[in-house]
């Protein structure tokens, strides 16, 4: 593992491991994104999303942009959950106004039979970006690496793009479950390798985005999503350089299965805005840290509402005690969000949470 400067702010890592912290750490899903004018300038200079993501210097530049504006407690690698299936040969493209699309989606048994765990050399640009970001951070805050869950990646691989009804992947699930299980197993093995390489390159915490787990029925969520999330977690190297590498699992729409998600082997569970934090703590008995869960649309409510809603989330979590809380949104920040609204949120969370922790 490369040698990096010592970490100056480890509040995020301590909170994820339910250790004592002076305030509630804060980072935002999609914090390096289109709401920032400097991001849009970098993307225009790169020419495309993929050109930016596959260039370690540009990925580093974008990753660090929100930290130059706000006193956040973590950087998150700028990349995309679909880099892994792209390395499998599915042909990822980001078309203007349409989002991600695969030119060769999985639509038949023959397509699935050809699928294999990719050579990680195809993803070298990601690991190079991780190492570069760690060096450039100079120990300021930890770096979070991430991947999509096997189920969520499979949704894109079969649908070929985002979907409103998931009829193609669900059709495969109901008609040919063995085919989908093969896809999920390959995805899980690839994700283990991918995340381990990220932490080896310098990522100090890892996050698994199960963005579409909530579209599954009860019973099918456990079989087709949670089982493969657990497979990933079982394969991860959880300690690097004498320190635990905490893992966060975020299932959008997964509130009904909170106890099961918390028991899958993760250190922290990310929650969307539909879940009450106080109830979540009771349901998980403080066995894991909790991350979240402000509605991203609260950032459009104006300064008084932003401050009020930030306090509500912190109050909902309640006394820190043996629990760990990482403040975040309940999903990614909207591209239409004002950077000034984010500044208000960061200011309120930092000040109010420090008072709750007894820090003047």
UniProtKB/TrEMBL annotation:
Pathway: Porphyrin-containing compound metabolism; protoporphyrin-IX biosynthesis; coproporphyrinogen-III from 5-aminolevulinate: step 4/4. GO terms for cellular component: cytosol. Pfam families: URO-D (PF01208). InterPro entries: UROD/MetE-like_sf (IPR038071), Uroporphyrinogen_deCO2ase_HemE (IPR006361), Uroporphyrinogen_deCOase (IPR000257). Substrate binds at residues 30-34, 80, 156, 211, 331. It is an enzyme of class 4 (lyase). The record marks 80 as: Transition state stabilizer. GO terms for molecular function: uroporphyrinogen decarboxylase activity. It catalyses: uroporphyrinogen III + 4 H(+) = coproporphyrinogen III + 4 CO2. Its EC number is 4.1.1.37. Keywords: Cytoplasm, Decarboxylase, Lyase, Porphyrin biosynthesis. Signal peptide: none annotated. Gene3D superfamilies: 3.20.20.210. One of its GO terms (biological process) is protoporphyrinogen IX biosynthetic process from glutamate. SUPFAM superfamilies: UROD/MetE-like (SSF51726). Residues 25-34, 144-160 form the Uroporphyrinogen decarboxylase (URO-D) domain. It is found in: Cytoplasm. PROSITE patterns: UROD_1, UROD_2. PANTHER family: METHYLTETRAHYDROFOLATE:HOMOCYSTEINE METHYLTRANSFERASE RELATED, UROPORPHYRINOGEN DECARBOXYLASE. Homodimer. Belongs to the uroporphyrinogen decarboxylase family. This is Uroporphyrinogen decarboxylase. The gene is hemE.
């Amino acid at each position: 593992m490369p040698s990096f400067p010592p970490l100056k702010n480890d509040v995020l890592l301590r909170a994820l491991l339910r250790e004592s912290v002076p305030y509630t750490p804060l980072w935002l899903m999609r914090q390096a994104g289109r709401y920032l004018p400097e991001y849009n300038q970098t993307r225009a200079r790169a020419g495309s999303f993929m050109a930016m993501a596959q260039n370690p210097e540009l990925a580093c530049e974008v990753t660090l942009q929100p930290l130059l504006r706000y006193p956040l407690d973590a950087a998150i690698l700028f990349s995309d959950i679909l880099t892994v299936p792209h390395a499998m040969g599915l042909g990822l493209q980001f078309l203007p106004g349409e989002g991600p699309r695969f030119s060769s989606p999985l639509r038949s048994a023959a397509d699935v039979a050809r699928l294999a765990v990719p050579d990680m050399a195809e993803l070298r640009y990601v690991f190079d970006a991780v190492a570069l970001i760690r060096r450039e951070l100079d120990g300021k805050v930890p770096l979070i690496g991430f991947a999509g869950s096997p189920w969520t990646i499979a949704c894109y691989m079969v649908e070929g793009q985002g979907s409103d009804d998931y009829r193609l992947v669900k059709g495969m699930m109901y008609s040919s479950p063995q085919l989908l299980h093969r896809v999920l197993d390959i995805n899980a093995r690839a994700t283990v390798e991918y995340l381990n390489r990220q932490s080896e390159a310098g990522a100090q915490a890892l996050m698994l985005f199960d963005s579409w787990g909530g579209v599954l029925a009860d019973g099918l969520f456990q079989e087709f999503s949670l089982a493969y999330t657990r497979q990933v977690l079982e394969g991860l190297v959880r300690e690097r350089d004498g320190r635990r590498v905490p893992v966060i699992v975020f299932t959008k729409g997964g509130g009904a299965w909170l106890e099961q998600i918390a028991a899958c082997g993760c250190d922290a569970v990310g929650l969307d805005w539909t879940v009450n934090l106080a109830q979540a703590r009771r349901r998980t008995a403080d066995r894991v840290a909790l991350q979240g869960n402000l509605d991203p649309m609260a950032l459009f409510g104006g300064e008084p509402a932003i401050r009020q809603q930030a306090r509500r989330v912190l109050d909902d979590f309640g006394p820190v005690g043996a629990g760990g809380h990482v403040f975040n949104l309940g999903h990614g920040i909207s591209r239409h969000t004002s950077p000034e609204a984010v500044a208000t949120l960061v200011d309120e969370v930092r000040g109010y949470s420090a008072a709750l922790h007894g820090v003047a």
